[in-house]
Each structure stands twice: as structure tokens, then as C-alpha cells.
Input
Amino acid sequence: MVEKIKSFFSIEAAGSTIKTELIAGLTTFMTMAYILAVNPNILANTGMDRSALFTATALASLLATLVMALYARLPFALAPGMGLNAFFAFTVVIGMGYSWQFALTAVFLEGIIFLLLTFFNIREMIVNAIPLNLKHAISAGIGLFIAFIGLQNAGIIVKNDAVLVGLGNLGSHQAIVFFIGLIVTSVLLALNIKGALLIGILFGTIAGVPLGITHFPDSHLVSAPPSIAPIFWKFEFHNIFTFDMAVILFTFLFVDMFDTVGTLVGVASKADMMDGNGKLPRAKEALFADAIGTTAGAILGTSTVTTYVESAAGVAEGGRTGLTSLTVAFLFFIAMFLAPLFLMVPSAATAPALVLVGSFMMSPIIRIVFDDYTESIPVFLTIIMMPLTYSIAEGIAFGMLSYVVLKAFTGRFREITPMMWILAILFALKFIL
Output
């Protein structure tokens, strides 16, 4: 059996061992397990059943990561994406007023389209057409947006009629739990302790007990997974051919496209897994994993599934093959039977993870070229408009439009790809209509 595992995953050829791959998988899971608490908290704001969301999150992560492990055989894990779940809940449903069923329909269509685009190699073509600086800006903008949401969830930032937003009550129980979690997690990260985000959430949850915001479950901690019936296959197919659906669908497609591809390329580069041409072997298979995960996730009742940047933690531990991701998938399976444990976590305890994940997503900003104003201005608008408009889509729209306009009016038409013209026109129509 051991030899078959080594042969199937080409472990020795990758310069790894079974023990290393298992440890790498555990490390990756520890760094991303917070999604089991955070994703239900975020999507529950739409009115979706929180318990059902836990099971849907775990199942979607399990299925997508299994595809990555057994088909792509790469050490990357997948789960409902941060930023994409925020867009689902706070922009599409709460901000724009659509039902969560409408948003799930868009995610389902996104998954189907991704399957087709991946099969015909179109995803890579689209990604290659977008300027690199704007790709970095999108990651940074989403980072600010996620951090802003985390600060709101903890009551650190509150609505202020005079200046729109202001500082909340820092002496509240929610704020106290937030700062405990933030300090603990930040120190652990600085000390390079694996699983810092998860440990920080645990500290915050425990701190919330005497403060009355963490409530122990009535049932046993180990139990059968909650039913997904309240959110399973809840689609609004009658809205498929509406203009609103087209706009939301396009935004989901666009954001997820860069989130997944950027993570794959970034983590693979760090692990020296690129070939001589700077391309990732079996990239098409890896892209199929998130397409299948997104489609299945929508059916189960959760937002877009994507490759997790926390996979870098496992890669840093030496993970190089699909056995790493297979380990992560197995741990998601085990987690499904610990639903009460994850669902008792209050939003104030997960808020520090949101803020710090936001800081992680800011890292691409160091690779942005600011000397060229036709690049730096669109970059800045992309980043700043996401949190200020409370919308990832609006930030992308401002960035795309300003990029095309500035390049065109300065006579640099050659730098505008045909795909960029198409994207700019679509966003302009969105504002006009």
C-alpha cells in the first residue's frame, strides 16, 4: 500500500516523503480551518441557515480538495473563498437587495461556465490579458474589504451619521474578545507558529465565555453533520437570463478567476514547482478542481470555492504532491462531525482572522509599479473603492475603466488588449444602465 501511494503521487520524484506530506496537509488544514467558522458567520447574514452552512462549507471543501488531490495531484487545498463570500453576502444580497437564492444561482452558473472555460483553455487566455498591476491591486483591495468587514463584525468600526463611519465602543465585550484574538494571533504569526489563525479563534472563543458572547451548545460536541436541506439546490432559474444576473455572474467569474490563478501561481512559484517556461504543470487539472468545487458548492448551498493561499503553509512544510491535499480533505471530513464545536464560535472571535487574512492579501502591493500614473491611478482606484463602496465589483469596475481611459488618452493604445476593451465596455454599460 505504501509503495502504491508513493507511486500514485510520485512522492519520491517530487523529493518528498509520506510523513512530510501528511505533516504538510495537517499544517495547511490548521491554517485554513477557520473557514468552517467564518464562512457560516458571513453567509448567515443573508438569512441562510448557519448550521446547514457549516455542513455545506465542509462538504464543498472536501469535494474540491479531493479533486485537487486525486486528479491534479497538487498540494493545494480549496474551500469557499474569503472575499467571494463577502461579495455574496454583503454586496449581492444585503447591498443590492437580491435573495440568497439568486446569488447561489449565479455561483452555480459560474461553476458551469468555469468548467467549459477550463476545458477549452479560455481561462488562461483571459487571465493573461489582464495587466499584472491590476491583478495585484484586486488582491490588495479585497484584503482591505475583508479587514473592514472584520472590524465591523467586532464593533470596532460602526456607522456614524456625521462622517459615515467611526470608532465603536472599545470597552464592549465584543471588542475585548476581538483584541484578545488579534493580539494572540498576531504574536503567533510573528513567531511562525503553525495554525496561528485557528489558535487565535480558539482563544477569542474561550475569552468570550465569561463575557457572555460564547454559548456552549446544548448537544454533544461530536454529532452527525447538520442537515443541508434548508439551503440545498435552492436556485432561481427564472432569473438566469436577466441583465442583473449577467452582471453579478460576470463579477463572480472575474474575481474568482484571479483569486484561483493568482494563488496557484504564487504558491507554486514559492515551492519551485514551475517548469522552465514559468508555467505550472497540470494547471488545467487544478483549475478543474475549483470549477467542480464551485458547481458542487452552489448545489450544496455555499459561495464560490477557490484555491486557498494558506496552502503556502503546507508547501513551506515540504508538501509537494496530492497526498498533502488528500490529507486536508480527510481532515475536512472529520470536521463535519464536530459542527457544534465550530458553530459556537462568535463573530467577534473570527473577526481577527478576517482582519489578518486581509493583511495577507495586501502583500502583492509590493510588486505594483507606482512610477507610471497610467498604472498607479487605476491600481489605487481599484484598491480604495472596494472598501469605500462596500463592493468588490465597483472597485474592479473603477480600476478597469480608468486603466483603459488613461492608456487611450495618453496614446498608449498598444497596451490595451482586446479583452480589456471588452471588459471596460461591459463595466461602462453597467454604470450607464
In short: The chain has a mean pLDDT of 87.
